[in-house]
Structures are given as structure tokens and as C-alpha cells.
């Protein structure tokens, strides 16, 4: 045979098998494993048609993001663990049909779709669909399978034969490949580079590195399929003959071996091998699905799962194992998920309500119930029945402590020695027990008694008197720890008895379990779980699953530093390092909870004197629950270390829904949003946890728990970025968040230019209001100024008409008297002196009246006015005046200019009257700040003689204060006096500047300066 020559060593193996099977009875030439009902160690979940799931499922695939894709008779569906969505292509892409048969993912994240009599199509990751029909090389008929060969070329099995894709169209394989153009119905590229095909009801393959197909000579029925096992064997599912391996790593199996390993009862439409080596086989024409278990190459057990066990329909076709190890089965009435359970129940163990775990003197672990008959819990005996487990336990003669309700018992094989509690404790039920060795026991009995058994005799420790003992556990350094219902601990060691309680931060409630591990002390209570390190303060461990750390009655730490807690919610696993960090920082840990879905038969026993969790030497963690004994293999990985990616779905606002993609635009006026998201983890989607945040709104991550929707209100227009992180049920968080950037459009009133115009309008309005207000104030000031002038003129008239006129008349009468000849000379002289004084007073009064009538307002030239003051006064001989003006003199505010003039006049008059100066300088500077300076070189004044009220200084200061200016006076004896006034220009200058002074005006100022 040319085929055998391509597989070295096959001839000898074939000859040996022929001899063996010739000598064997006919009934042993095939495999008939023992049957069973239900899948042991799996939890089943069903999604049925009519409850959201599609029916008529023909194929299942998973994309790189973790989403399941279902090819059904009603279209293509996606499933994220929460909901099913029928996929729609982008606008303008017509679907050739809804009746899909097969799927295949490509390397770019797209999907190849095989239709029932409608050709082939490719769905891109962007939602675009391209159809391939007869014009593109696809013949009519059912497309039953896709596969990539070792060169990366995509092949399709179609009714009229195989086709391969050249990048643009589908083409027939050339005749040189040796393949007939016959009906093709399956393709498989195995792990060793061989490409298999079922064509023309025969099995063909291309050897690794080959260029042509080689026939195996194996004939098959129509619609047969192929599958590869984890060991590399190629199995054929023949609908008439059964399931049979046809090749292994060495090549084609001999016919005798194929016959010997045939499973004739497995008449499957397809085969699928899961990663544990089990064969899953949906049965042809109904009958549910079979699961075949192997011991090496020998099938040892065949389990059936059908409608009575919960399958959605008896007609199943596709079987698919996802990246997390879940097995999915599609039927014509829905979808099924099988999840491997980590916890297994000892169904052959004690079946009474009370189950106990105990170790013998050699450290072997046993379980027993009320009948006190032990069961061996060694790993190798798990397949034994009840009697076998009991026989194995009774063969071990090392001492084993057990307890009845009111006494202890010590077993050695079949011999059982009852040990009664001492004295008044006889007949009492123990609240807590601990067995350090074969000849030693500790017990808490009665209200507050702690008794110790050692080598046949009992003693009581009277130092420990706390009532309500609940736990006894070994402590460090040969000590013992006693836990109490009061929430306290008592440490008994070589140094004495020590109470531990709230003073060290212990606040876990009534103590239910204690474990001393290296430098750590772990305490569980009804209220929670706490840790102390190196004898320090206790701190509580918090978890992000509410109540998961309550009701713990068993604590174990395995060699991988995993903390296992048997509690009121099930079995909990924590990383020891995470638990310590939580106790130190207060950050919540993300524990893994094993519950009924994971195989836990119940919850931890809550009342018993013995811990409910024990780790055996072979790595099995044994648990005492209220529904029986259970175990978990700690040597196996019970976690998904790959963090799930999160997918952001739709954004909802008002009555509208949009897919949230980068660049999504939300209409104007929207202030409330709802954003959907989900983790791409299909094992326990209800256990996935999420954190999210929205830029510009959230300062940090929001913990959403298991909720898959984010709600936001009071959002304004602008650009936002939404981020979400996901963790699977094992608490493994993604390192990079999934993000989507979107924008909320502004209303007209929220746009930048509208707000700018509004601001400009507001500024204009304020300016107009300020202008109107300024005009109003100006008019008011002007009116008050005019009233002031009128009042001053009235006072001047009254003074002129009364005081001055009266004084003048009196002076005339005095002149008449002075002319009388009979007047004595001395009286004459005195009268003339009085008349001179009266004339001086009248002259000064006239000056004051003139000043009341003077108007230094509009149009007043301050330099000229001050020069006029100098010229009006009686100046000492030789006194010179010099006037200097700098800057352009603007139009002055009338009231302010008058105040400046009066201050300057007072300074000039003082200089003329009191200084005996030879030079007087007047300087006026018109700038941002107006400055007036009057300086003389006279006798000056002694420091301190310038007092308020003398020489008009008081009035000068008052006028300066009204102007908002500053007045300074410097003077020293024999060094003259300098008076300086500075006034802000805004207080002196009129709002509208006058036209620049005429040239003659400037010339006049310069001329006056020369005259001075």
C-alpha cells in the first residue's frame, strides 16, 4: 500500500492489532463505555427561543473581543453574555439571505459567512458586507465549512466541491492537486500542518509541506465531519458507523486499530474535543448530546444530556469551547452553556445532616457523620463507592479523634474507645474541640469550662473563665487560641493567659474561626474578617461583594498563598497579599466566590466544634457544608488570568438610541445620558465588575459593581471621553480602559459666538448706563455748583449792601469828626489811626466779596488768575514773580478748578504777607496728575509752627481733601517755604477735552512768565 509507506512503523502495529483482535471475542472489537445521565462536574445554563435567544443555531464562533457569533436560520446574532443582537449590515449592503450554515473568523476581526444555497459573504469589522455569488466563483449549494490551510489560504466546502479564495474571487483547485470535483462537506487543518477534507464521501488530506491531496481510502457517509483531540488524533464522526479515530501524530491508524476503538453508539452530526480531552458529540436526528470520557485511549464513560436534563432541544448541532473554558451547544430551540464546576460533592459520603472533617495522628483526612463510621478522603479513592471509602478508612489504624454529641471517641481502625468528659462536664455537648496529638485533646464544655485531656486524664484550666467559648485553634510558639461569642480572643501560652479584644482593634463579632499563620493572625467573626500582623492591631478586610466575608467557619492558606474561607455565602478565595493590603489600606479586595454554580452543595456549617475547611496533603481542599462534604483541587488553576475587555454599546438620550462610537454627536439640548457597556467575559457575566468615568465630570473612577449602565445628568455642551474598565469573576481587572469620545452639540444660546455677542451687548449696555449716569451726575454737580454760586452772590450782595455800606457810612462820619477843629491833637491822631484800620477792614471785606463773586470755572486760565492775585496784592519792593506752565492745559472742571485756584491764592498771599521773600515761583504741570507748586525764598518757618488754622493752612488742607489730592508744605528758617499740590487728572479735567490752546494764549503765558 503506498499510503502505509508514508507512515513508518504502521505495518508492524497493524499486524499486531490484527492478531490481537482476531483472538479477541467479537463483542470486544468495539468500545462500549458505561453510560450515565447528566454531565458530572458541569453547571448548565439555557437560553431558550422565545426568551431572547435565537433558534435554529448551526454554528458558533468567538471574535477577538470575546463576543459569541451565532449562525442561525434567521440571521447572524451576537451574544455578549447579557443579550442577543441580530446584526445589521451598513446601509446599502444587501444580505443575500438570512439562512446561515457556517462561520469562520478571519485575521482582521471580520467573519466569513456560509449560506444555505445563497453563496458566501464577508462581514468586515466595520459592518460592511461583501457577497460572493456565482459570478465570483461560488457554485450553488450549501456551504458547509471553512478552513485555512497551512499557507493561510481560505478554503470552502460547497456541494459542488472545494473552492479556495485568491483574494478577490473563489476558484476551483487545479487538477494537479488530485481532488475530484465532487460533493464536499468538511474541512480541517490540524495542529501538525495536515489539511483534511471530506470530498466525494472519502477522506483526503494534504501532508505537511505537500502540494496535492492524498486519499486515505476511508469511505464516509454523507454529512460526516472531522475533529482533532488534544492529543493530536483525528476523529471521524460518521452518521452510520459511529465515531472513530483515523490518524494520530504518526499518521493514519491501521484499520484494525480503527475498528477496535470505534464508538458505534456515538452517531454524531459533529464532534468536539474540549481541553480536558473529553469528546462532545451532538447526536444525529435527536438524542441530545453525549460526553465521552477517556482513560488514555480507552473510552471509560459516556454521559448523555438531553431535554430531561435541561437541554433546550433534543436536536443539537454545533459545540464550541470559548477562551474561558465554557462549552456552548446550539440547538434548534436555543443556546446552552456548560461551565465546569470547581467544587465537587462527595456523593458517596455521609448523608446525615451533620458532617465532620478530622485528621488522624498521621495527618490523613477523614470525614464522618452521626454514625461515627469514617470515610477515607484520599484523592485516589474518590472513585470508590460508599463501602469502599469506609473500608479504606478502617484499614488505617493510626489514632483518629472523633466526637459524639456528649463525649469523645478515639478510633484505631475498627476499634473505638469512648472518652467521657470529666466530673460535672460529663454528658455536656462540647462547643469547641482541638486535637493536638494522638493522646491529647482540648475542649470547651458547659458555660465557661476549658478542659484538657492528656494521656488518659483530664485537667481544667481555671485561669480561663470567659463564657461562650466558640473556637479552639493552635497559636504560635506552642500556644492555644480560644475564640468567644463576645468577640474576644484568649491566648494561652508559656507566659500565661492573655485577653485580646477591642483594645487591639478586634471587632469581627462573635468569633467563628481562627488561624495563626507565620507572623499573621486571621480571625473570622459573624461581622467580618480581620488580620493582625506581628502581634499588632487588628484591621478589617473589606470586599467589593457585600456579605461575602461573613459567617466564615473554616480558614485555610494553601502553599500558593491563597486564602480559602468557607462561609455563609459559599467558598471564598483571596490572595493573601491582597487581604493584607486591604487590612492595611482599607481598599476593598475582589474575591472569587464559589457558589452553587461552581458546584458548592450548600454553605458552610455554622454550628460545630471543628473547623469546616481542611487541606489534605494531596492538595484537595475539603469543606463541610450543610448539604454534605465537598472538595476542590487546589493544585489546578481555578481562575481566568486573562482580564476581560470591555465593550461600550449604545448611548440613550430622550427617546433616541445611538451606537456610541468615537466621534458620535449628541443633539443640542441634551443634558441626560445613559451609556451601556459590558465585559467580554462569558463565564459568569453577572459576576463581572466595572469601573467607569467621564472626563470633565468624574474626578476619579466610579465603582459600578455588576451594573452595566452609567447615568449622567446636568451635562453641558462640549467634548467628552467615556472610559470603562472591567474585571472577571476572579477579580482580574483590565489594564487599559475602553474609551469612546463624543460631543454634545450646543444650543444657539450656548454657542461661543452667541455668548460673545451677549457679552458685547452687556458691555455696551453697561457703558451706555454709565454714560447716562455720568451725564446725570454732571448735571447734578453743575446744578449744585450753580446753586453754590448763586448763594455766594447772595451773600456778597448782603455783605455789600449791609456790612460794607454801613462801614463806609461810619467811616465818612469819622472823617467828618476828624475835620473838627476843636478835636485835640492826641484824639485826632488816634482817630486817624482807627480810620486807617477801618479802611483796611473795608478793603479786605471788598476783596472777600469780590472772591465770592469770582468765577474760576469754565475758560479760566489758572496761570493768569494766580498772576492776577499777585498783581492785586500790595507787594514789597523788589519781590519778583515767575510763572512756569508745562503741558497742554485742558478744559477744567469748574468746581475743581476753583478749589485749586483758592489753594494757590492762599499760598501766594501768605508768601507776600509773611515771608519777606524776594522771589516767588509758581509752577503748573498738566499731565496724568496735575501739580501746582508755590515756592518762595523768604524767611521760612520754624518746624512745628505751621498749625491748622493759621495763615489759611487749615482751609488749604480741607480743599485738597475734597479734591482727592495731596497737599505738602516744606519750610525751614531762612530757607523759604514750598507748597505743593497734586490732584489726579480725572478729578480736575473736564470729560471732553477742549481744543488745543491758541498760539496767542501760549504766547501770553510765556510773556507773563518773562514779566515775572
Question: What secondary-structure arrangement, pairings included, does this model have?
Answer:
Blueprint lengths: L1 H4 L4 H14 L10 E4 L4 E7 L8 E6 L5 E5 L2 E5 L4 E3 L13 E6 L5 E5 L4 E4 L5 E4 L10 E6 L5 E5 L2 E5 L4 E2 L12 E6 L5 E5 L2 E5 L7 E6 L5 E4 L5 E5 L3 E7 L2 E2 L2 H6 L11 E2 L5 E4 L6 E7 L2 E8 L10 E6 L5 E5 L2 E7 L2 E3 L10 E4 L5 E4 L6 E2 L9 H9 L5 E4 L3 E6 L2 E6 L9 E8 L2 E6 L3 E6 L2 E4 L8 E6 L5 E5 L4 E5 L2 E5 L10 E7 L2 E6 L2 E6 L5 E3 L12 E4 L4 E6 L2 E6 H10 L6 E3 L18 E3 L4 E6 L2 E6 L12 E8 L2 E4 L4 E3 L6 E7 L9 E6 L7 E4 L3 E4 L5 E10 L10 E7 L7 H67 L6 H29 L8 H11 L7 E7 L7 H22 L3 E7 L3 E8 L16 H11 L2 E6 L5 E8 H4 ...
Parallel strand pairs: 1-26, 58-64, 65-66
Antiparallel strand pairs: 2-29, 3-4, 4-5, 5-6, 7-8, 8-9, 9-10, 11-12, 12-13, 13-14, 15-16, 16-17, 17-18, 19-20, 20-21, 21-22, 23-24, 24-25, 25-26, 27-28, 28-29, 30-55, 31-32, 32-33, 34-35, 35-36, 37-38, 38-39, 39-40, 41-42, 42-43, 43-44, 45-46, 46-47, 47-48, 49-50, 50-51, 51-52, 53-54, 54-55, ...
Helix pairs in contact: 6-7, 8-9, 9-10
